[in-house]
Amino acid sequence: MSPSASINACSVQSRPPQRRPLLLRSYRPLTRSVPAPQPTFTHPMPVAATQVVLQVTIIPALLHCLQQAVAKSCGKVVETLSIEPVPRSQSIRVRLAVAGSSVNAAMEAIIRALPSGEIGRIATF
Question: Which residues pair with 59 in a beta bridge?
């Protein structure tokens, strides 16, 4: 057998051409080797020095009860910022400014005195 005959024999027995992978299959899956950093919250001021705004929604007949309950539990560290009607409702929205150290006491007093009241947005300033 001549060397050229063996080459021709190999080319006849060669495998069919492989399919090219689809474009989407050629991408590697996105994996994270390092976990994403978790954000950490650091408050710029101590809690006792901050003011917290509590937004409470009640019916108008309970406004006096709200003011008494908060005044008994927190004393002079509570201030009423605004009282406004809620649109398309029979309720009013009361915003109270409370010292950061008395927020839990104020919320507890509101919940105990007015079970029908809703404590809404709580913000610091």
Answer: none
CB atoms within 10 A of CB 107: 18
Domain with 114, as residue range(s), is: 47-124
Q: Digits of tens for pLDDT over the chain (125 positions)?
A: 555 555 555 455 666 667 665 555 555 555 656 666 666 655 555 545 688 999 999 999 999 999 999 989 888 888 889 999 999 999 999 999 998 888 889 999 999 999 899 999 888 87
CATH number of the domain bearing residue 66: 3.30.70.2750
- Residue at 118 is within a domain: yes
